[in-house]
Amino acid sequence: MEAVWKELKAAIKERIPFHSYRMWIEPTKFSDTQDGLLVLTCPNFFSKKRVQENYKTIIEGEIKKTLGKSREFSIIVAGKNGGTQPNPGQDRQLALPNMNVRPHCGHFLNKYFTFDHFVVGDCNEFAFSASLSFASRKTNHQNSLYLLSNTGLGKSHLSQAIGHHILSEQPNDRVFYITAEDFSNEMVRAYRNDCIEKFKGKYRNGCDVLLLEDVHHLSGKERTQIELALTLDFLFETEKRIIFSSCYLPGEIPKLNDKLRSRLLSGLISKIDPPNFRTRVRILQRKSIAKGFIIPEDVLHYLAAELTEDVRQLESGLIGVAAKSSLLCSPINLGLAESVVKNIVRQRKRITIEAIKKLVCKYYNISINDIVSRSRKQGLVRPRQIAIYLSRKYTDSPLQAIGRSFNRYHATALHSINTIEVGLNGNSAIKKQVEFFRQKLESGKF
Length: 446
Prior knowledge:
Order of helices and strands: HHEEHEEHEHEHHEHEHEHHHHHHHHHH
Strand content: 5-15%
Helix content: 40-55%
């Protein structure tokens, strides 16, 4: 039967993506036959769960083709020495303690951002497999991973899931989780306080795994880029692991020095796309269970059909429905869901780049010709940057098209977006202005 299983694996390999085969089917081995039952082994309970949920039908089909008849199979978990582990009652990974995990440096890891809580679909399967493989050290030749997606699609979840997995498997590893913005601020403080050598030593000698979020915020920060590139060189040479995340490809980030760009491009780049309807339904089901909500199936399907932007929007709709039902003591039904959704869904079809231009120009009392001109007067630069930021946020136009619409290259458009995003975190004037335009656009009053 060992030879039969090898033949089955070869057939399955032709039917599924290579990365899925390598991650889930290849480690599955033939163990025994018991009363006509084919017994297979997986390396852990998580792998067993994935194979059963996603490849059971394919395996059964190939067994029938090869043997000429149907035959049941079961999967058990192999122990570290090749034996089997007892079933702990439920086929799942042991949960981390019910608390946020503090890595050795930077932010806390969100307790829900683990591989167990991540819903896998066609939109993110490769990124998920790459992240789990990276965390499990199955890719010994790969020292860095670059997670790419728009806001709210799961790159932070996967990044932190890697941190959780490493800390649970290798508790002595020093995991640093930090944003690029905080890294830059920490370096500036180190220079001001004359302790830059301590800062360098912390990241170069005291770090085994670096989780660096939102690397596009390094745009234009030359000194930080130089220091980070040197730190990355040191970490790469000592075979440490590095996970980057960003909304943009390294080649799209403006004002990034060549050495750092080369380092960002040297690892595996894994993109996460927006979830399709089926995946959105599964996300809502998973979050409903996690939060203890009882939501009718038709309401879940309605939310999944209407809230298509990102996972955060889905969660907002789910929480909104549960909260409104609780506050009004009303049953959760389609009517209630519709009243919540209408306040969340943006009128994307009505919002265009031209409409945004007109709105911004009217508020700042400038002309359309002014906002697309080559002038760099401050009175025109800020309105132009805000208009570009809003165009990226409220339309589906690619960055190149937005740049052309404002008579700018896409790199300049990206720089404008980054400038406003940074301003939203610290500049109250920018925050108020952007919030004003958001309300106008989302209410349809423009």
